[in-house]
Design a protein that fits this description.
Number of strands: 0
Protein name: Undecaprenyl-diphosphatase
CATH architecture: Up-down Bundle
Pfam families: PAP2
Keywords: Membrane, Transmembrane, Transmembrane helix
Number of domains: 1
Radius of gyration: 19 Å
Distance between the termini: 68 Å
Largest sheet: none
Organism: Bacillus taeanensis
Number of helices: 8
Structural class: mainly alpha
GO molecular function: undecaprenyl-diphosphatase activity
Strand content: under 5%
């Protein structure tokens, strides 16, 4: 069933240049939009700074989990095992988990748990990221679903243990403002 669903989605690739371009842009460009949104949140307020830090910890934990799973589990990518419409080059490493998807959902879920509107936008972008990975022929649907689940669960766990991070986040934010103060002071006093 996983391969049948993969084929149903991947068979659409290569038929419409505009859709292919959109999917390739999402699969490789979404990370830059996430970075942009994260920087905007960091610059907004202390509340958003804390959300950004939760997101960073979730992304770090997701990256670590992704690495650990790949050390012990290998699943060939669709383009290695089957004839697929392969739109962009990719490594021939394990198909599960999808690093793009697990990181996108880790960050999106962290934000969604704190700020619904921004989090919803990020979650939609994460869904599109996962879908685009199937479209371009890099992952099976189950890889994407599993990666989305893992990224989301990591963020929920981080959120539930939030009290242990609060003083650390306050320390980072304090030192960020102190550093900005020193920079401004140095630039006004030659």
């Amino acid at each position: 069933m996983d391969y049948k669903l993969f084929k149903a989605i991947n068979r659409l690739a290569g038929r419409h240049n505009t859709l292919d371009t959109i999917m390739i842009t999402i699969t490789y460009g979404a990370r830059f939009l996430y970075i942009f949104l994260t920087v905007l949140m960091w610059l907004r307020s202390n509340t958003y700074k804390k959300i950004t830090l939760y997101g960073a910890i979730s992304v770090g934990a997701a990256l670590l989990l992704n690495h650990l799973i790949r050390l012990f589990y290998f699943k060939p990518r669709p383009f290695v095992k089957h004839r697929v419409r392969y739109l962009t080059p990719s490594k021939k490493d394990s198909s599960f988990p999808s690093k793009h998807t697990i990181l996108a959902f880790a960050l999106a879920t962290s934000v969604l748990l704190q700020k619904r509107i921004v989090g919803t936008v990020m979650w939609i972008l994460a869904l599109l990221t996962g879908f685009s990975r199937i479209w371009v022929g890099h992952h099976y649907p189950v890889d994407i679903i599993g990666s989305a689940f893992l990224g989301s669960v990591i963020s929920i766990i981080i959120e539930k243990s939030a009290r242990s991070f609060t003083s650390f986040f306050n320390w980072i934010i304090y030192h960020y403002y102190f550093f900005c103060y020193l920079i401004r002071r140095k630039s006004t006093n030659p």
